[in-house]
Amino acid sequence: MLLAVLTGCANHLPAETVNSMDIDRESVRQDYVFQAQGVNQIFIDQPSPSFSVTDHESFRVTTYSVNKTLEVYTPYQPLRELYEFPSGILMTTGGVVFSIVDVVPFFGMLPDVMTKDLLANGVTGINPFMNMESHARSEKKVLGIPEREVIDQKVEKSESPLRQFKLTAALDASIASLETDERGLLSVDLLSLMDGNTAPRMLTLSAANASGEQVNHEFPLTRQLSVRLMQAKNLIDKYQQIDGDKLKLPEAIEDLSTLSRWGFEHNVRSLEQQIREKLDNERRIAFDSQLIQALAG
C-alpha cells in the first residue's frame, strides 16, 4: 500500500500551445582579406609595408515560427495527502450539495467553480493516488516534435580585424611565419625575408580559414623596390664577413646613409649596431663622431 501511494499519478491539466521565434545562423562563407595600407594598394613600393587583416564572413540567417504543445500536470507528492484527503471529503460533500441546489431553485445559475469544479477537486482530494490540481506548482513538458515554419531568410555579412592572428608571408620562395598585432595590423620587413641572390618580385600572404581552406593574396613589388632590396641585401651582407680593423669608416657611413635614403631605416639601426661591435674603442669614437657629422650635414 505504501509503495502504491509513493508512486501515485500526476494530475494532468489542460494542454497548452505556445508560439515562439527561433533564429538559426549558419556560416556559408569565410574569407580573409589582406589590405595594403597607403595610397598604392596594388604594388608594394616600400621595404616595410603594412597590411590590415580582416575576417569577412557571410551567414545565412533563418527565422522560424515554432509551435509547441505542452503537457501540463501537477506532480504527485505523497505527504500532501495528509491534508488533501480531509479537504477532499469536505469539498466532495459541498460539491454534491451545491450541485443539487443548482438544479432547484437556481436552475443552473450557480458558477461551475461552486459545482462541477468543487466536486472534481473533492474527488481528487479523496483519491490517495493523486494530488489536487495546482497551477502554482504545475510542471510542463513538450509533447511530440515542435512545428517549425520558415518565416524569413536572409544573408548577413560581418567584418572583424584578426588580432594576434598567425599567417604565412612568402617573398618568392622564401617563407616566414608572422602574426598581426592587437589591432589586426601586420608589418612585413621584406629585407629580412630575402633568401637568395635574385631580386624578389612577389609578396604572398596566406592563411587557412576555419574550414581549412587556404586563402592567398598576392602583392607584386615595383621594379625599383625589387632592385633596391637586392642592393640592400648585398650591402648588408658585406659587413657580415669584414673584420673591424679592415672596416673603412667613411664607406660604412655612406652605406648607412644610402640604406636610410632607400627607406631601410629599421635595417640601418641594426647594421649600425653590428658595425660598432666590430670596432675597438678608439675607432668606435671616431665612427660615432663621423656619423653625427654626416647626419647633421
If you average the pLDDT, what whole number results? Answer: 83
Helix-strand topology string: HEEHHEEEEHEEHHHH
The amount of beta strand, in percent, is 25-35%
Radius of gyration, in angstroms, nearest whole number: 42 Å
Summarize the main sheet: 4 strands, antiparallel
Subunit organisation of the chains:
single chain
Number of strands: 8
Low-confidence blocks of residues: 1-6
Basic shape:
rod-shaped
First-residue to last-residue Cα separation: 110 Å
| Continuous helix count | 8
Percent helix among the residues?
25-40%
Structural class: alpha+beta
Write up this protein:
This protein is rod-shaped. It has helices at residues 2-6, 81-103, 116-126, 190-193, 223-241, 249-262, 265-278, 281-296; strands at residues 11-36, 50-74, 139-161, 166-171, 174-179, 185-187, 202-208, 214-220. Among the domains are: 2-15 and 64-148, no CATH class; 242-297, no CATH class. Helix 6 (249-262) packs across helix 8 (281-296). With 297 residues, it is an alpha+beta fold. 36% of the residues lie in helices and 35% in strands. Strands 1, 2, 3 and 6 form a four-stranded antiparallel beta sheet that branches.
